Amino acid sequence: MTAETLDVTPTDESENVDWNGPLRSADDVKKRVRSVIRLRQKKTPAAVAARAHLRSAAGREVGDVPAIWSYTLDSGSEKELGQKPTVGERAVHAALTLWALHQGSNDAPMNSTWKRERTIGASVRRLACSDMGGRERAEEHPVYKRLCAMIAAPTFESLTVHARGLVSMFGSAEIPMDYGRFAADLYNWQKPERRAGVLRQWGRDFARTPADEEQTGSSATTSIPESN
After folding, report:
1. What per-residue confidence (pLDDT) applies to 74?
2. What pLDDT was estimated at residue 222?
3. Closest CA relative to residue 199, chosen from 152, 145, 157
4. Which string of DSSP letters, residue by residue, matches 167-214?
5. CA separation for the pair 115, 135 (Å, rounded)
6. DSSP reduced 3-state for 106
7. Which residues in the chain come in under a pLDDT of 70?
8. Which candidate, 169, 160, 166, 167, places its Cα nearest to that of 189?
9. How would you class 79 by CB atoms within 10 Å of its CB: exposed for 0-12, middle for 13-18, buried for 19 or more?
């Protein structure tokens, strides 16, 4: 490993933010992802370097890239967490690395929030409707087929592969997504009793999201009413 890879020393004042909390719930991972993105979507050298490290970790095992440990790992003890990546760590790692890929060289923030939380299904709908061409229905767009493949994924690894394909399409079209909500969905997807609900909401958002629903902003800390 190179010295750059091993360097996990705080690079600016934003490192004082508490990124060392637990990742034991969907709300925990949502807050972690929104907090990291809020500070790492900037154009400062530290933010640019952080996004590069996150991109380099896409598709890799949780913990493989030391430079992103503070963003993606849980704070619990080895006895609490065990040897393997936790559900929360896997969700945060996948969401943040996909966000960094999505942001890429786009000038506009590719993470966004809305008055009503939107899932990845809404971003798929927006892309399909913005590029209808000669198609009569959004379901005829290739991005819909990619969403269907992700929904049918039997493993978390295959799901994130399909998600990476979707993110690439979003980036080319400059279609944003709420990565905090996506992280929460990835957390819940790993819970068998919650998986069907996650997939159902993706379908609902694809089928029913109003095209003109108001966007509240690109900040990862935008206030959004949470459902009980």
Report:
1. 94
2. 35
3. 152
4. HHHHHHHT--B-HHHHHHHHHHHTSHHHHHHHHHHHHHHHHH--TTPP
5. 30
6. coil
7. 1-19, 209-228
8. 160
9. exposed
